[in-house]
Design a protein that fits this description.
binds adenosine-5'-diphosphate; alpha/beta; 2 domains; acetate kinase activity; EC 2.7.2.1; 398 residues; ATP-binding; ATP binding; Acetate kinase; Nucleotidyltransferase, domain 5; eight-stranded mixed sheet
Length: 398
């Protein structure tokens, strides 16, 4: 049995064909620069399978055109999708609003509802909808499943999900904290329970998903009780290009004094802030090169990042009362030992330690980085949102 997982972004589509049981990936690839006029001969679609890479280098007009090229590349590789034994196509959908809080079989009504939620996620949901529409056209006989980034946080306690603004205005406009990266937080916290050989129901966990986007969550007995992202994926931790938490007063101040309109402010906070806004680069490898060369702005960006991260860890320690496991995941969390060490430095009185040898081991698998016998397990667990989406999709159609 196989599931095709599709993650459509505003100008890209990432996909994987995988076995939801074993997790083995039969093929994967990426469509990039959708909608751009591409004339430099660089690949706009890369398809990997059987140890080979196939490329397409023409411009890709839209998501439908991109998926058509992907389907052609499956044919050209000798493994047409029609013969792949597809049980389902699983789509990552960013915002489920109040409407969707579990994996959902896609129907016309579901597509319309996801589209209506675009007001809450203008950068993401429209792209997700185009991806779903195209896949339904190209594979009309295969069930399509939508898996929502917000779903895991649907049950956040009222105190954690409510913004202290005029309740009538909030209710009218769907303004509450939804949380994102839920598929990753759920998958990773499940892996932690397995790794510890414990029933998830008895575990209190903090999960730190640190990629380009970054979020933290506090999980009690398998249920999220708090998370750092809010109405949108802009709130919370400092990210590659996003500010995370700021004083909301900065927004009217900028509108009045910097002559920025609301789209300009949105762009500033989402694309030109965070690590990039402070240092000029958004990739952590580039940031560390700058720090090593003595760049003071890069150093400050890192210090602000770690400061914010520790603030959330502290809040979640208090929120949970007792913590059994703290887990790092995603690009930075899985690969950057310095961030892990700095995030948890000086917390041994709380039973939290990072063993320097374990922390710097060049290991790609889920593992402990706390000292043996430490009361709080500190772990690195690679996230795998594609596998989680494939499993959720396969379960739903079974
Ligand atoms: P997203 O999926 O949100 O785009 P990722 O989870 O891929 O992001 O994380 C991207 C970040 O992870 C980048 O800042 C990158 O520098 C960092 N990263 C990825 N691989 C490594 C690595 N091998 N060493 C250090 N940092 C890495």
């Amino acid at each position: 049995m196989r599931v095709l997982v599709i993650n459509s972004g505003s100008s890209s589509i990432k996909y994987q064909l995988l076995d939801p049981v074993s997790g083995s990936v039969a093929a994967s690839g990426q469509v990039s620069r959708i909608g751009e006029s591409v004339s430099d001969g660089t690949a706009t679609v890369e398809h990997h399978g059987d140890g080979h890479t196939l490329e397409h280098d023409g411009p890709i007009a839209d998501h439908a055109a991109g998926l058509r090229v992907v389907f052609d590349l499956f044919e050209r590789s000798g493994h047409p999708l029609a013969e792949a034994g597809l049980a389902a196509v699983g789509h990552r959908v960013v915002h489920g609003g109040e409407v969707f809080y579990r994996p959902t079989l896609v129907t016309d009504d579901v597509v319309r509802s996801i589209e209506e939620l675009s007001a809450l996620a203008p950068l993401h949901n429209p792209a997700n909808v185009t991806g779903i529409r195209s896949a339904r056209e190209l594979l009309p006989d295969v069930p399509q499943v939508a898996v929502f980034d917000t779903a895991f946080f649907h049950g956040l306690p009222d105190a954690a999900k409510t913004y202290a603004i005029d309740a009538k205005v909030a209710a009218e406009h769907g303004i509450r904290r939804y949380g994102f990266h839920g598929t990753s937080h759920e998958y990773v916290s499940g892996q932690v329970a397995e790794l510890l050989g414990r029933d998830p129901a008895g575990l209190n966990q903090i999960v730190l998903h640190l990629g380009n986007g970054a979020s933290a969550s506090a999980i009690r007995g398998g249920q999220a009780i708090d998370t750092s992202m809010g109405l949108t994926p802009l709130e919370g931790l400092v990210m590659g290009t996003r500010s995370g938490d700021i004083d909301p007063g900065i927004i009217p101040h900028l509108a009045r004094t910097a002559g920025l309109d609301i789209d300009g402010i949105d762009e500033l906070l989402n694309r030109n802030s965070g690590i990039k806004g402070l240092s000029g680069v958004n990739d952590f490898r580039a940031l560390f090169e700058l720090i090593e060369s003595g760049d003071a702005a890069a150093r400050l960006a890192y210090d602000v990042y770690v400061h914010r991260l520790r603030r959330y860890i502290g809040a979640y320690l208090v929120g949970l009362g007792r913590v059994d496991a703290i887990t790092f995941t995603a690009g930075v969390g899985e690969n950057n030992a310095q961030v892990r060490a700095d995030a948890l430095a000086g917390l041994s009185r709380f039973g939290i330690t990072v063993d320097p040898v374990r922390n710097t081991a060049e290991d790609r698998v889920a593992r402990h980085i706390s000292a043996p016998e430490a009361p709080v397990a500190v772990l690195v667990v690679p996230t795998n949102e594609e596998l989680a989406i494939a499993r959720a999709s396969a379960r739903l159609v079974a």
